Amino acid sequence: MDNFNPTNYSLTCVATGREFEDAGWTLDDVECKTPSLVRTKYAKRQLELRDDSLGLYKFADWLPVERMLEGSSAPVTYRSEALARHLGLSNLWITLNGYAPKHGVKMRTCSFKETEAYSVCARRRASGDDRVLVVASAGNTARAFAQVCSANNIKLLLVVPTDNLSALWFTEPLNDCVKLIAVDKGGDYYDAIHLSNMVLKSSKFYAEGGAKNVARRDGMGTTVLSAVTTIGRIPDYYFQAVGSGTGAIAAWEANMRLVEDGRYGDNLMRLIVSQNAPFVPIFDAWRADSREMLPYDMKKGRRDAELINAKVLSNRRPPYSVAGGLYDALKATNGDVQVATNAQAARACKLFKELEGVDIHPAPGVALASLIKMVEAGSIDKDACIMLNITGAGEEASKMGRELWYLKPQKSFSVMAELGEVIQYVETLF
Question: Which residue segment(s) compose the domain that 411 sits in?
Fold first, then answer.
């Protein structure tokens, strides 16, 4: 898109408060000796919404982007009637990410991971660097980045567990600039991250950065910007299912910017994040009031990850303890961690489709199940302003009547693959 003036911003280290300029793809403060996230500090203190036709970039004032890419869709927030009435809630707002044309949201991959991909990929200038972007994913993130990079001719190498390849569906073949390698059957998201780290030993590739990338977090934070600018105030509660917790961190950061904006109130939303039992490492650490993740039984972790329906929530190494991470976000907002079983999440998904008319992914089903449990337990004020972040929706509707195309891996690697073997192969792909 032409005639775009990049947003002015600086970066701040959460641990030390040091402010510095973004070198273009800065993921850390090199002067900080403590594990810490960095945050964006935007020149525009008050958010000015741009035209809806710009999709996600209507929030460009608070996105660290150098350009606008074609094809994005912004999250849409609306006030629930049927679900709210069923739960006895007077002020329930749903932020919808996915494919639901009747609500005006048309994310082609049906997931809020598109908010990350369109922000991250627009952070880098269109020319001047021929390296290949590397993204490790449990599924939805890979699908979003593949779609965005294919449409905008950005070189991308995806690293995904073989067990999650069914998530890589598309409604049309992808541009050849997108390649995929996989971790053999039985490997999980953490193994995909390990394989991607080996790829990054080659100078031909660069890391997307995950939670460290401010563009990823600020892209996800547009869900809160959508909610607050629609409602006209900062909500009291924020519900979301988490694997890494990056979306909740992003919600907290967006909330703080909105407080500084001054037009929407000065409260911090209570972050209520949810995990899919039996895979609950964040829940376990939080219940123990531990800043560090608890010691982990690798075999049990793999087994638990295989048992959950919301595979995208199976992150064994979340940004929990790092300065500015999920632990700090939960403490700052008086938040909490809930859990929901596969059966509870499935019932919640069914309820949402019956009452709101949109099919949703298992992960937001986990979030809704947690909301239902808190309502039934009487632990939430029924007149509170509640934001329910539906992070994936409309997949059934999106696929209906369409021929699907699945991205196939160029090669699958053992979890015990050697560095030399990996580098030698991936350098021939582009």
Answer: 132-203+400-430
